[in-house]
Write the structure tokens for this entry.
Amino acid sequence: MEPDCDAWSPGAPPCPIFGNVTDTDVRNLTRYCAQLCRTGGTVVWTRHRRAPDLVPTICRWFGEAGFDLEWLSGEDAPFGVGVHRFTREPPRLATGNRMFTFGGATPGRCEAGTRASPEAR
């Protein structure tokens, strides 16, 4: 899986599923979400609640990246669902970096100058 950062439309809500990437990549993705959202943009994400429960840490990481928590599923739920709203001006999208590796697949990279076809946007 090779995500194309340059194909993202500003304001399109990222919806990461954090159960299939490493904790380090979850951290990276929270930072990338700040680059992929407009001010006021919303991110909806999911993560299992198995030990160790990373959901509280993910909320903290989103806070550090400029997001306010809008809603979070209860601790008794078997999985976490979070909704965060971006409150800052987005930084420029950092291209040429690996965003994540999905489930052990090929690392996803953001390569400058690569774009999806207009039909895919």
User: Anything to note?
Assistant: The chain has two helices and five strands. Strands lie at 42-48, 67-72, 79-86, 98-100, 108-109. Confidence is low (pLDDT under 50) at residues 1-8, 104-121.
